[in-house]
Amino acid sequence: FVVNIRCGLLGFILGVLPGAGATLASAVAYMTEKRIAGASGKFGQGDMRGLAAPETAIGATACGALVPMLTLGVPGSGTTAVMIGALSLYNITPGPMLFQQQPDIVWGLIASLFIANIMLVILNIPMIRIFTRILAVPNWALVPVIAIITGIGVYAVHATTFDLFLMVGIGIFGYILRKLDFPLSPILLGFILGGLMEQNLRRALSISNGELGILWSSPITLGVWVVTVFMLLFPLLRIWRKRAKQQAAAAHG
């Protein structure tokens, strides 16, 4: 229950950020719960928190993505971008005035979220037995199907064979890292955030005509830089404090 509340809030906050998406929310939620669990958790070995955390964050992200769409007219995800396009066909422009001009649409969308969650519970509980049978499928039958679906999805993006070779190379690289007991979550998070960082950096530089000062010229950006530096240094500080306590205990012992 605590995991659902924590990851629900985390997913909602990330959903409000335009462009973050469910993939980022699920990765961040999984890494957060894995770090909180520490040595007591068995993530990757059947720990239910490893399943509940990303799924809760994904569901909350869908709700959070409606916030920038309804208040600012900015799509928070691919789904809300499609919704904006559908609303525009009926001469409805999402934004601040939508709450005053057509509040029935806004509150209808909000009410639909509650109804959808209730319907999902009603539909999914009887189908639990069907879903659990997927776990009984042997790996020799499941892995080829996953590989084929993954290959089709990768090829459909740019329709180039290079992407297929890149997928295979990344898969081999990830397999080697897993055999060497390297954590894969930071690498996946880097892949997810790398593209978003590059796109937004390019967008910011295009607005400032290539002037790098835009990255730290406002109080908001300075605050983001301070938080970023703190988050980078916090793990190092924890390691330093842990070593200091161990050395102090060894000296007194």
UniProtKB/TrEMBL annotation:
InterPro entries (UniProt xref): DUF112_TM (IPR002823)
Transmembrane segments: 51-74, 105-123, 130-149, 155-177, 184-201, 213-237
Stored Pfam families: TctA
Keywords (A to Z) from UniProt: Membrane, Transmembrane, Transmembrane helix
Occurrences of domain DUF112 (ranges): 5-189
Superkingdom in the source lineage: Bacteria
Span of the signal peptide: none
PANTHER family the UniProt entry points to: TRICARBOXYLIC TRANSPORT PROTEIN (PTHR35342:SF5)
Name of protein: Tripartite tricarboxylate transporter protein TctA
Organism: Pseudomonas syringae pv. coryli
